[in-house]
Every structure is written in C-alpha cells, then in structure tokens.
Automatic annotation (TrEMBL):
The family this protein is said to belong to: Belongs to the radical SAM superfamily. 7-carboxy-7-deazaguanine synthase family.
Cofactor note (record): Binds 1 [4Fe-4S] cluster. The cluster is coordinated with 3 cysteines and an exchangeable S-adenosyl-L-methionine. Binds 1 S-adenosyl-L-methionine per subunit.
Function: Catalyzes the complex heterocyclic radical-mediated conversion of 6-carboxy-5,6,7,8-tetrahydropterin (CPH4) to 7-carboxy-7-deazaguanine (CDG), a step common to the biosynthetic pathways of all 7-deazapurine-containing compounds.
Known catalytic reactions: 6-carboxy-5,6,7,8-tetrahydropterin + H(+) = 7-carboxy-7-carbaguanine + NH4(+)
Ranges where the Radical SAM core domain occurs: 40-114
Binding site for substrate: 24-26, 39, 83, 209
Gene from which the chain derives: queE
E.C. no: 4.3.99.3
Lineage: Bacteria, Pseudomonadati, Bacteroidota, Flavobacteriia, Flavobacteriales
Name used for this protein in its record: 7-carboxy-7-deazaguanine synthase
Annotated binding of S-adenosyl-L-methionine, by residue: 49-51, 85, 126-128
Keywords assigned by UniProt, alphabetized: 4Fe-4S, Iron, Iron-sulfur, Lyase, Magnesium, Metal-binding, Queuosine biosynthesis, S-adenosyl-L-methionine
Length: 209
C-alpha cells in the first residue's frame, strides 16, 4: 500500500472495502429487516470457524474513499450495517458521520477487540475468546451475540453477559457448521435460562447474502 493511501486509511478517509450489498438482516435483533451491508476487510481475531476468512487480510481489499462508501449505501437504505472482518480495526468516525449526515441509521457488528470509534445507533457485540472486547464497549452494547460451537461456550456467554447493561438483548447463535449438534443444546439452555434468546443465521436458510 502506498504511504499516502496508508495515511488516508489510518485516518478513516479511506477503508479497505471487501464488499457491499443490499439484503435482509439475517441475525439477531433486526433479523428480517432490509439493510445495506458494508463489509470492511482486516481482522486478526482469527476465529477458526469464521465463514468469511477472506476478509482477514486487509491488503486484499481495495482502499475505498469513505465518501464513496457513504454515497453507495444511502442509495439503497437508511439502515447501514458495518461488519467485517473486524471493522473497529479502523477509525469509523468519518464513516458514521457521513452516514448520519445523510440521514442513515448506523449499525455495527463487532467483536469489540479494538477501541470503539464512530457514532452508532445499534451496537451488536459478538465477543470472541481469543481476543476479548475492550472494557469500554460493554456498557454501550445494544445486543450481545455469543456464538455456540461447543458446550464450553455457554459459560463464556454468561461471563460476557455479566458485563453488559441490563437493557442489552442477549442472544445465543449456533455456529453454522455444527448447527445440528448445538441447536438442541441452545434450545434447552434458553428454556432453562430465558434471559437469553435464540439467534439463527436466517439469511443462510433464505439463501441470500
């Protein structure tokens, strides 16, 4: 990456854009609603079951002017979901300001592994054991989404739930590749612990992005 471009990326004036698309939100609190997704490249959290590993290397995704990302997004929707990769690898201040200036609602899906930047209307925190969230994001999370890959993930989810606010909506979501194994465990757990809700990746059942 050229030094001049790298500087713009570090300032949040450009971002490594992996993909952008208009679709139906498939997961969590806003499932079933239309939204424009902006997937930002770059992630060093390294979940072994990640289904978008091609997002990890930011160098593979072209630095794109943040203003262009904003203009593309607001053509389609007034709800914009920023995801990754790990979007908080980069400074989100200018992206969210641009979106809000155009009247869009800003949502983020993040592991919380990096300091929170940007002005968000909805924060979906999906913490990972390998790189825990920074402490400042817990009280600001609107939604806690814990992925269940095996039985030990329930204990981790409870540890994370202790750190968010009482208004935060709590979700357990099966990891897709082992869903047949863990869905019965999740159903049983939620019935015994009804503060939790089940989140499914409904977009995969609908066969949409």
């Amino acid at each position: 990456m050229q030094k001049s471009v790298e500087k713009l990326v570090n300032e949040g004036k450009m971002l490594p854009l992996m993909e952008e698309f208009y679709t139906i939100q498939g997961e969590g609190y806003h499932k079933g609603t239309a939204a424009y997704f902006v997937r930002i490249g770059g992630c060093d959290v390294g979940c072994h079951w990640c289904d978008v590993k091609e997002s990890w290397n930011a160098e593979l995704h072209p630095p794109t002017e943040t203003d262009v990302i904003v203009e593309n997004a607001v053509k389609y929707s007034d709800v914009v979901v920023v995801t990754g990769g790990e979007p908080l690898t980069w400074d989100m201040t200018l992206l969210t300001k641009g979106l809000k200036d155009k009247g869009a609602k800003t949502h983020i899906e993040t592991s919380g592994a990096y300091p929170l930047t940007g002005d968000w209307d909805w924060i979906c925190l999906s913490p990972k054991k390998v790189k825990l969230p920074t402490q400042d994001i817990y009280p600001k999370a609107d939604e806690l989404k814990c992925i269940v890959y095996n039985k030990s993930d329930f204990a981790f989810a409870e540890e994370q739930a202790k750190q968010v606010s009482s208004e935060c909506v709590l979700y357990l979501q099966p990891e897709w590749s082992v869903r047949d194994k863990v869905i019965p465990m999740i159903v049983d757990y939620v019935m015994k612990n009804p503060k939790w809700k089940v989140s499914l990746q409904t977009h995969k059942y609908l066969n949409i992005p």
